[in-house]
Specification:
Pfam families: ATP-synt_DE_N
Oligomer: single chain
Number of domains: 2
Subunit structure: F-type ATPases have 2 components, CF(1) - the catalytic core - and CF(0) - the membrane proton channel. CF(1) has five subunits: alpha(3), beta(3), gamma(1), delta(1), epsilon(1). CF(0) has three main subunits: a, b and c.
Shape: elongated
Order of helices and strands: EEEEEEEEHH
Subcellular location: Cell membrane; Endomembrane system
Membrane topology: Peripheral membrane protein
CATH architecture of the largest domain: Sandwich
CATH topology of the largest domain: ATP Synthase, domain 1
Number of helices: 2
Radius of gyration: 17 Å
Structural class: alpha+beta
Number of strands: 8
Protein name: ATP synthase epsilon chain
CATH class of the largest domain: Mainly Beta
Length: about 130
């Protein structure tokens, strides 16, 4: 039997995945890197991007925004500020959210409201680019 990598993906809301996997591709702050069984220990911050998880030949994709990746002798743990299962995202619903956020940004009356709407819009567009 092929060696597996113990993998945990955790967001502030919940544990999204815990499994024995073949490989994980991580969007590190210094660049994308792959982690498989027996990987050397490393710690990295995350940039917004797609986390690709290969489990028994099947790929699962998650969008992560910020956080940390730790590889040690026990496996890989991702502590994400935000993590979304891309397979569960409704693209049409996301497009509508983007449209609503664009309208909110255009209708904002104060600088603070404009900045908040612009930040929300940027985050939604990051997710849309990943889908």
């Amino acid at each position: 039997m092929a060696e597996k990598l113990k993998f945990d993906l955790v967001s502030p809301e919940r544990l999204l995945m815990t499994a024995e996997v073949d490989q994980v591709t991580v969007p590190g702050a210094e660049g994308v890197f792959g982690v498989g069984p027996g990987h050397v220990p490393v710690m990295s911050t995350l940039r917004p991007g797609v986390l690709d998880v290969v489990e028994n030949g099947t790929e699962k994709r998650f969008f992560v925004r910020g956080g940390f990746a730790e590889v040690n002798a026990d496996g890989l743990t991702i502590l994400a500020e935000q993590a979304l299962d891309l397979g569960a995202i409704d693209a049409a619903g996301l497009d509508q959210e983007i449209k609503n956020a664009e309208e909110d940004a255009a209708d904002a009356k104060t600088e603070a409201a404009r900045e908040e709407a612009a930040e929300r819009l940027a985050k939604l567009r990051e997710v849309r680019a990943a889908v």
